[in-house]
């Protein structure tokens, strides 16, 4: 195929990670002269509209997912909601098909959004999780995931092409038959040489009610660190801003440039071990302390793997305390020079091939 003239980029609205890692993809196609449109819903769509206010938008059906805070029921609730997501994906396909035809889209790039698909144009999907870490439900969820991925022309894995990879076994699964291509680390951030005048910055993300629980835990912990300069980025829209303390500043949400600057100014970052956050920290070469979303096997796997590699320590949300941060001296942090970013050499040829 020739280089695409009109690209439709569509992230899943599941936290903000899928949307944030689409930012460099959109920037790339715009730089190459392609027209880009965006399709999503909720906060994911809002993030991309804030970043790219001039792009055409297709609003899709809500993909909001609610979580249980209890282990076994966490996965059971997700699976039960999966049937609803399937129905919404079919509705999305109809919307996408009409949009593709009307606006002459010639490439679809979905980020784990299975409903953004068309048989009439090349449809690729960004996905680092070819197999799932979901306890008793690992096989069934991985099987369903692979079946959905195999509809697409290609699977683009956002990861470095060096060894060891960031995603580990998550990006390896024998039942995925669609061509799998590593495209480099996706991050909307770039390393800035700024003075590190913030001791701790916590960037909160993920679904409710777990996000709010994590926020309360951090506020309680940081309130006692009066000798430190602390920042909490709450990752919320349309909520009343919390009142700053002399040593603790709150932000509801920041655009990429603002958040990039704050994170680069921080000596230590505290965040979830979601894959998009891991890529951001790897890109910036930060010292980071991870707190996985409770019961989310992917995040727990990544946090355990990075601790084993002596890159970053982690704690469960329930047991997190600020004294745990003292363990950071035993870990290297990320080396950004070892992490090859999107697009890798040859990516242009892949698109035109």
Automatic annotation (TrEMBL):
Pfam families: Glyco_tran_28_C. Residues 256-327 form the Glycosyl transferase family 28 C-terminal domain. InterPro entries: Glyco_trans_28_C. This is Glycosyltransferase.
